[in-house]
């Protein structure tokens, strides 16, 4: 199993590349601000062939580069329908005035091929089996992705901005809700096995077991 991750230059948003092995097809997760050059280097280094882009949610720090990445590789982008409008209008997700330059860019567009995610679905992409769970709270369309198949040594969780090491995503932006976040943590995150490795949208990786005993937002729900 190949997992390559790196933070974006400005917001520290983690972009991940997943593949069964070097030289295989791959899935790109959350291509954020100005990641195209580094992403191309990772793809070239491991001789990978992108099959899709998957988005944990619509905030521009996670989706800023989705259009150029998808168009250059002729691949689909996957996003929950509740956050899809942010691909064309990212200002709605962060409460900014439409047309305000975002890192020098004032216009955005969807890729040619956008596919909507549904709760409980399983995506078969690049030889990987990715489970989809709707986990609103940070945004109304936040999702997490799980991977548990023959190519990995144990279950993996791509948690986006739902769960971080020692914390959770903010809930004070448009579409955010502490009530929804609490439900997602209780019903989606806490039932997971302690051994699950968590790859979050920001910061270092962790495990469910570590967060269960140290993350205050999870501890208060047990």
Tell me what you see in this structure:
The chain is built from 7 helices and 14 strands. The protein has a 6-stranded mixed β-sheet, covered by helices on one side. A 6-stranded mixed β-sheet has the order 7-8-9-10-13-14. With 222 residues, it is α/β, with parallel strands linked by helices. A hairpin with a 2-residue loop joins strand 11 and strand 12.
Q: How far is it from the N-terminal to the C-terminal residue, by CA?
A: 33 Å
Instruction: Please mark out the parts with pLDDT under 50 across 5 or more consecutive residues, or reply none.
Output: none
**Count of β-strands:** 14
Taken in chain order, the helices and strands follow as EEEHEHHEHEEEEEEEHEEHH
* Protein structure class: alpha/beta
Radius of gyration: 16 Å
> What is the residue-mean pLDDT, rounded to a whole number?
94
Determine the strand fraction and express it as a percent band. 25-35%
Q: Strand arrangement, largest sheet?
A: 1-2-3-4-5-6
Largest sheet: 6 strands, mixed
Number of continuous helical runs: 7
Helix percentage range: 10-25%
Q: Describe the global form.
A: globular
Features:
globular, 222 residues, six-stranded mixed beta sheet, 22% helix, alpha/beta
Task: List the topology elements.
Blueprint: E1 2-7, E2 14-19, E3 25-29, H1 36-45, E4 49-54, H2 60-63, H3 66-73, E5 76-79, H4 91-94, E6 114-116, E7 122-125, E8 128-134, E9 143-147, E10 156-160, E11 163-164, E12 167-168, H5 178-189, E13 197-200, E14 206-207, H6 208-214, H7 216-219
Parallel strand pairs: 3-4, 4-5, 5-6, 10-13
Antiparallel strand pairs: 1-2, 2-3, 7-8, 8-9, 9-10, 11-12, 13-14
């Amino acid at each position: 199993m190949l997992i390559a991750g790196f933070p974006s230059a400005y917001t520290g948003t983690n972009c991940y590349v997943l593949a069964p092995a070097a030289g295989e097809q791959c899935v790109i997760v959350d291509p954020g601000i100005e990641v195209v050059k580094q992403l191309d280097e990772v793809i070239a280094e491991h001789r990978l062939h992108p099959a899709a882009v998957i988005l944990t949610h619509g905030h521009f720090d996670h989706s800023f580069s989705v259009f150029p990445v998808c168009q250059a590789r002729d691949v689909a982008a996957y996003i929950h329908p509740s956050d899809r409008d942010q691909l064309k209008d990212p200002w709605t997700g962060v409460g900014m005035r439409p047309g305000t330059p975002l890192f020098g860019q004032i216009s955005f567009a969807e890729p040619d091929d956008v596919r909507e995610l549904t709760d409980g679905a399983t995506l078969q992409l690049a030889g990987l089996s990715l489970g989809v769970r709707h986990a609103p709270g940070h945004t109304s369309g936040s999702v997490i992705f799980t991977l548990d198949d023959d190519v990995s040594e144990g279950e993996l969780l791509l948690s986006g901005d739902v769960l971080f090491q020692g914390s959770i995503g903010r809930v004070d932006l448009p579409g955010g809700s502490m009530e929804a976040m609490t439900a997602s943590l209780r019903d989606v995150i806490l039932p997971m096995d302690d051994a699950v490795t968590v790859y979050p949208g920001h910061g270092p990786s962790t495990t469910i077991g570590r967060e269960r005993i140290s993350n205050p937002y999870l501890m208060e729900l047990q």
